[in-house]
Known about the structure:
Two copies of one chain form a homodimer.
Chain A: H1 4-16, H2 23-34, E1 39-40, H3 41-47, H4 54-66, E2 70-74, E3 80-84, H5 86-89, E4 93-97, E5 103-106, H6 110-124, E6 128-141
Parallel strand pairs in A: 4-6
Antiparallel strand pairs in A: 1-3, 2-3, 4-5
Helix pairs in contact in A: 3-4
The structure holds a DNA duplex.
Amino acid sequence: MTSPQFESQIRHHLAVHGVRYTRGRQTVVAALARMDGPRSAAELYDQLERTLPLSSLYRSLAVLAEAGVLSPHHGTKGLTRYELAEWLMGHHHHLVCIDCGAVDDVQLPPDLETTLERLVATVAADRFVATGHALEIDGRCAACA
Amino acid sequence: MTSPQFESQIRHHLAVHGVRYTRGRQTVVAALARMDGPRSAAELYDQLERTLPLSSLYRSLAVLAEAGVLSPHHGTKGLTRYELAEWLMGHHHHLVCIDCGAVDDVQLPPDLETTLERLVATVAADRFVATGHALEIDGRCAACA
DNA sequence: TTCCTTGCAAACGATTTGCATTGGA
DNA sequence: TCCAATGCAAATCGTTTGCAAGGAA
Lengths: 145, 145
């Protein structure tokens, strides 16, 4: 199912947060771990061959996101897609193809990530308490260029 | 209503695109021009004191976005917020409140924007033809902090 | 006239919730 | 045991659409 290392990290994380890791929730996490990008409730529903009711799916996604295991990603058409949180997947940014819509992950070289973090801190400064950031780079992927 | 310079630029842009600049559409643009960040249909509806029916509002937003006068921004809670396109507003980034979902515009100081552009160019490098970028800074706004 | 736009209400699709039942610590 | 999780169906909420009436060219 889920890669074993995620399995134990998540189990521990949820235990600490007093959240049960039930079969339904494990199923959702396992499905997402198999994916190569964020997925919506409907997409997971299909992927799981409709064995898990949509309402349960939504509830699992909400609980797991609340617990910090998943992070929601709001995309086109009002769909919310979820992916494993950054502490599991690693901090990354997105390359979004303006032609085909494909989303690729990019990890910045440490020095650039540091630069970006300093930049964010400077900008947020007094008017805002920054807790995170996301850089989206728009352009054309190799296939579309 | 709308700052006169926007008024004429938009009017010309729409004429070129064969799209009428009706009173309803002018109202929507004027309302957005007064805002300091992207706004959803519901927010504009309230701002306009419910004088403009929601369905008309949605239709105006769709037409104006399609014509390139507005750009949509998909945010928390499945809401789509719109703002004047960058060719009108100038390039900027967003501060997004993770509690209330409010979105504020930030313009980076020129040196930081330059830094960011260099960073983007470096990252995109060979695998991607970058045409733009968007930095989202997540955190808590003054009201929610 | 001939399109395009508007308003109202009904329709939609994604997500949430009430409630009775099941399951896990 | 006992509270949390689940499933189903009904309810919500943002958004879209059908249709008839109101402009503008």
